[in-house]
Amino acid sequence: MKLYMHPVSTASRPVRLFIAENGIECDEELVDILKGAHHQEPYASANPNRLVPMLEDGDFRLTEGSAILKYLADKYELPSYPKDLKKRAKVNEAMDWINTQLYLNLGYGLVYPQIFPHHKRRSDEAHAGTIAWGQQGAKRWLEVLDKHWIGPKNQYLCGNDLTIADYFGAAIVSIGELIDCDFSAYPNVKRWLDNMKKLKSWDQINGAFNGFVAGNKGKSFVGV
After folding, report:
1. Strand runs (DSSP E) across the chain, as ranges?
2. Crossing angle for the helix pair 164-173 and 65-75, to the nearest 10 degrees
3. Domain covering 2-75: architecture
4. Number of H helices, E strands in the chain
C-alpha cells in the first residue's frame, strides 16, 4: 500500500497522522506540489484531479482524504470509525460539515487567498471582498464548531471517543495558524485542537507544516 502525499498538504496531513497513530504499514511517495509535480506524468494520469493525497492499495486507488480515512479505518477494523449505524452517521455528518461548510470559508475564503498567489483575485476589491466573506463565514462556523460539535463537555467532535472526524477536522482547523488566527474566542475548539496535538505522532507528521507556520510569523494577515 502506498500513499502519494505532500507533508504540508491539508488533505494529506490527517491521513498521514492516522496511519502513524495506528501503526499501519504504508509506503509514502512525495508528490512535490510546491514544484508542480502533481501536474506532471505519471501522477497526472493516475490522479486526474491532480491533487494529493492518493492511496494505492494494489490496483485500487482513492483520491479523497475523507474517503481514504474511512477506507483505512474499515480495512483495519479500527474503532475510530464506529460500526454502529447512528454513531457512524454522526462521524460522516461531522466530516461532511467540516469539508463543505467550515473548510470552504476558513480555507478557500480566508487562509488560502492570503498565502497562495494562485488564489489571489483579479482585483484588489475582489480580493478584499473574498477575504471579508471568508472571515465572516469562518467566524460563524467556528462558533458552531465550538458550541454545537464540541461544546463544554465533549473531548472530541462526536463525543468522548476519538474518531476519524477528529483527524480530518484538526488538520483543517489548524490551517488558521498559517495566518496567525487566535482561537481564544472559541475555547472548546482550542481545547480540542490542543488535545489533538498531544497525539504521539502529531509533531512528527506536522513538522513541515509547523515550519510553514513559523515562516509566516510577523506577517500581516486578516484572521479570526
Report:
1. 2-5, 27-30, 54-57, 60-62
2. 150
3. 3-Layer(aba) Sandwich (3.40)
4. 11, 4
Q: For residue 63, how far is the Cα from the chain centroid?
A: 14
Percent with pLDDT over 70 in the chain? 100
Find where cell 512535490 sits.
32
Tell the CATH topology of 85-215.
Glutathione S-transferase Yfyf (Class Pi); Chain A, domain 2 (1.20.1050)
φ/ψ of 159, rounded to 5, equals 120, -140
First to last CA, the chain: 39
**Residues 102-148 pLDDT 10s:** 999 999 999 999 999 999 999 999 999 999 999 999 999 999 999 99
CA distances to 68, 142, 173 from 181, in Å: 28, 12, 10
Annotated domain spans of the chain: 2-75, 85-215
C-alpha 139/C-alpha 106 separation (Å) is: 8
Per residue in 154-185, pLDDT tens? 999 999 999 999 999 999 999 999 999 999 99
In degrees and rounded to multiples of 5, residue 51 shows phi and psi of -135, 170
Q: Classify the C-alpha dihedral 224-210-76-153 as positive or negative.
A: negative
